[in-house]
Amino acid sequence: MSHHHGSSSDHHHHGHTPKIHHGGSSAPHVAQVPDGLYASSGTSTAGVSIAPQAIYNGGYTNAKDVRLRIANGGAGQSGLIGAWADAFIKYMVKERHVQPFLVAWYLGDTTESLGLLAAGSVDVAVTYNEAAEKQAKDSGAAVSLVYGFRDHFLLVGPSKSNPAKLNEKDDILVMFNKIVSQGNTDIAVPPDPNVRPPTRFLSRYDKSATNIKESQLFITIGQVPWALVYSKWYHQYPRFPLQALEAASLLSEYTLTDRGTWLSSPQSVTSKLKIFKTGTDDANDPLLNPAHVLLGSKANVNDKDIANAFMKWVVSEPGGQYVVSQFKKHEEVLYSKAP
Length: 339
Hints:
Layout: H1 11-14, E1 19-22, E2 31-32, E3 48-51, E4 54-56, E5 66-72, H2 74-78, H3 80-94, E6 102-107, H4 110-119, E7 124-127, H5 130-138, E8 142-158, H6 172-188, E9 201-203, H7 209-220, E10 234-236, H8 241-251, E11 254-258, H9 259-264, H10 267-270, E12 273-278, E13 288-296, H11 304-315, H12 320-326, E14 328-329, E15 332-333, E16 336-337
Parallel strand pairs: 5-6, 5-7, 9-10, 9-11
Antiparallel strand pairs: 1-3, 2-3, 4-6, 7-13, 8-11, 8-12, 8-13, 8-16, 14-15
Pfam families: PBP_like_2 (PF12849)
Protein name: PBP domain-containing protein
InterPro entries: ABC-Tungstate_binding, PBP_domain
């Protein structure tokens, strides 16, 4: 059993919403949240703390102390962070002769994870936006940054109706253009719901890396659908990746998701959707989703050796990169190793 509580296959149950505590909390391993950071999760009050989504023990049930705290969104929900944690603990115990310890994962999108890192509430953040990561390094919040793995964005939408008439041969920007123009047309002249659903795009609208990427694509074609008066076809749905994909499936909407989320979702969700465009490993592909691992300047002083060892282990071929290459869902490898 890899988990301190529950096995690592139960991420569907524990990965949905951040475990926020208001006011002083005596719950174990809670981390302080910088004021306003989790506002999109409905917590705009001050003095908020967050409990780990999961705590991993590498199979050592006698481990008691959390010595590494990691913030991340999608790869935590898919289970990769847990797989990394378990393998890293085993490595430290067997190869480095460290006493068994625990690794805690805190759920946060890129913006939230970097905020927790800057505050010293976590030691490491695994994030997906190079501009934001550069800011974290330039501001001194992060002391080092390594390439962890490659995820890939997917543009998905209703498989049967495909109301925007996307063609898989289309370039991604052509697809976004079609969604905008058909979305506007369907607002002016609503389609007969018995024939097809209207063209709508579901945005996580939550400052996540996915939201930033989707915004970047709209801006590249000269569109700002979220600006007032916001486009009625642009559905703002601030939730974490698994829930957002489920909503797009139920509502027959297009959305930007990632391969990890797609393969972590049940067939009841994915069967109603079609992948129209998939990111590749080409560094210039706008749908490549590189994940970087950042070490915080305020990482726990007593456990600096553990955090430093993790940063080296995570990029090593027999370490973190091997875990990435073996990490599968439905017999498919979710992520590519770092280049």
